[in-house]
Specification:
Elements lengths: L2 E5 L7 E2 L14 E5 L1 H4 L4 H11 L37 E3 L1 H7 L4 E5 L9 H18 L6 E5 L3 H13 L3 E6 L5 H9 L3 E5 L3 H11 L5 E3 L6 H6 L1 H9 L7 E5 L4 H15 L8 E7 L4 H7 L26 H10 L3 E5 L1 H12 L7 H15 L9 E5 L7 H8 L21 H11 L1
Parallel strand pairs: 5-13, 6-7, 6-9, 7-8, 10-11, 10-13, 11-12
Antiparallel strand pairs: 1-2, 1-3, 4-5
Helix pairs in contact: 4-5, 5-6, 9-10, 10-12, 13-14
């Protein structure tokens, strides 16, 4: 049982996942990791479910990880001693019943993928990529000296942490003054070389793509399909958490489009192995400031559309030229899915509304929620359907966004749920009056 690279577009050729390569040598398109489905089918769907269920409570390295508990689905021949794991995954599903009731959708859940080691879902993919690099180096005769990625914040944090744990030098490229302080300090603290470039994410991506033509610097962005292998486990994990039943819809923020591509890949694998016969409808949520996939969808996916991404509160998806476009289109079409967009006002208020019901959402999750609200209002999503929102990062990484909202200081946003502190003298009567006005 093994896995190999193959061209996503179907060009001939199979390549080792331990080769330093990111695109098809024939057409230049993205690669994907393919698995030996016949070998995997030697276990029944029920046997796979039982195996994954049993591993989820294991303390045996690395199988207690939400990712590596599915090792056969990812990199079957990767040696365990080279796996760099922070026991990522196994994140909880928040029963958003109160929020769901407010919008007429009682069976609403939020997958808190940001409750992970570095505070975002990027850990799911980075554990795979860094572990593969660790084995490449352990095998010897490799030119690789460091790993590198362009980032809007969360990728750099995950890369720096996992590379530090592996003892591999890391280099991250960030757009100057376009990431939150929490996102900036994470790779700095983990010892990465942090290069803040006077450009946007797409500009950083062009630099890192050119740099990694030299095989001594290993590319860690999502155009490297190894990342997808870890990220695809989130759909399988959702099924496990619902006793192997899948929801009707899954809505997620979408920027470089690796996440929705990965989710679809994991769900297709479950169907191929007889673990389910249901494909949830997938929704890609974009901001109106960075909406290339939405524009392409409006044009019937006749061709890839790129935009110059404008500054948005949802900075992690401020991407105008998404790498995984073709894979995302396949995911939307294959799941009978949708692409929708949200304005700054809509995403900020959706985030705040969710927070008032016990969540603490990042602006990207706010984007997904705002899109959900639209689809419910339009009757696309029915009140009797089960919906999962993928929350991609922890809200604590976006404190300036939160403060700006509650201070009514965000551009293009009317803060309908603002809850600023009330400044009072240290006087009991003043305190009682303030409380009486609210309670």
């Amino acid at each position: 049982m093994n896995a190999h690279f193959k061209c996503f577009r179907g060009c001939p050729g199979e390549y080792s996942i331990y080769d330093v390569m990111y695109t098809c040598p024939h057409c230049g398109g993205l690669l994907e990791v393919q698995h030996d489905i016949d070998a995997l089918r030697e276990r029944s769907g029920e046997e796979w479910k039982a195996l994954i269920d049993g591993r989820s409570s294991s303390h045996t390295h690395p199988y207690g990880s939400g990712v590596w508990g599915m090792k056969e689905f990812i990199a079957p021949d990767l040696r365990d001693e080279n796996i760099i794991s922070m026991y990522e995954g196994n994140t909880n599903l928040f029963n958003a019943r109160r929020l769901g009731e407010q919008i007429g959708l009682p069976d609403l859940w939020v997958k808190l993928s940001g409750n992970s080691h570095t505070g975002s879902f990027k850990d799911l993919g980075m554990t795979v990529l860094v572990s593969i690099v660790k084995q490449i180096l352990a095998n010897g005769d490799s030119p690789v000296k460091a790993v590198a990625a362009a980032s809007t914040g969360d990728t750099s944090a995950a890369l720096a942490a996992y590379a530090a744990a592996a003892g591999i030098p890391s280099i991250v490229f960030l757009p100057q003054d376009k990431v939150s302080p929490a996102q900036l300090i994470q790779p700095i603290a983990n010892g990465a070389q942090v290069l803040a470039l006077d450009t946007d994410f797409d500009g950083c991506m062009q630099i890192v793509k050119a740099l990694t033509q030299d095989s001594s610097i290993y590319l860690a962005n999502s155009m490297n399909s190894l990342r997808v292998e870890g990220q695809k486990t989130v759909g399988i994990e959702i099924a496990k958490q619902f006793n192997w039943e899948l929801p009707d819809w899954i809505v997620m923020p979408s920027g470089n489009l690796g996440n929705i591509s990965a989710l679809y890949k994991g769900l297709k694998l479950m169907m191929a192995l007889g673990m389910t016969d249901k494909m949830p409808r997938l929704v890609a949520a974009q901001t109106a400031k960075a909406n290339p996939l939405y524009r392409s969808a409006q044009a019937g996916f006749e061709g890839k559309i790129t935009v110059t991404a404008q500054t948005t509160l949802a900075s992690a998806i401020q991407i105008g030229d998404p790498v995984s476009y073709e894979k995302a289109v396949a995911a939307i079409k294959g799941s009978d899915g949708r692409v929708e967009q949200a304005t700054e006002d809509e995403l900020a208020n959706a985030s705040a509304m969710a927070d008032r019901t016990g969540l603490y959402t990042c602006p990207h999750t706010g984007t997904a929620l705002a899109v959900l609200f639209k689809l419910v209002d339009e009757g696309v999503i029915r009140s009797d359907e089960r919906v999962i929102i993928i929350s991609t990062a922890h809200g604590l990484k976006f404190t300036p966004f939160k403060l700006g909202y509650h201070q009514s200081a965000l551009d293009e946003v009317i803060a309908r749920h603002a809850n600023p502190p009330i400044n009072l003298p240290a006087d009991l009567n003043a305190v009682k009056a303030a409380i009486a006005a609210r309670v």
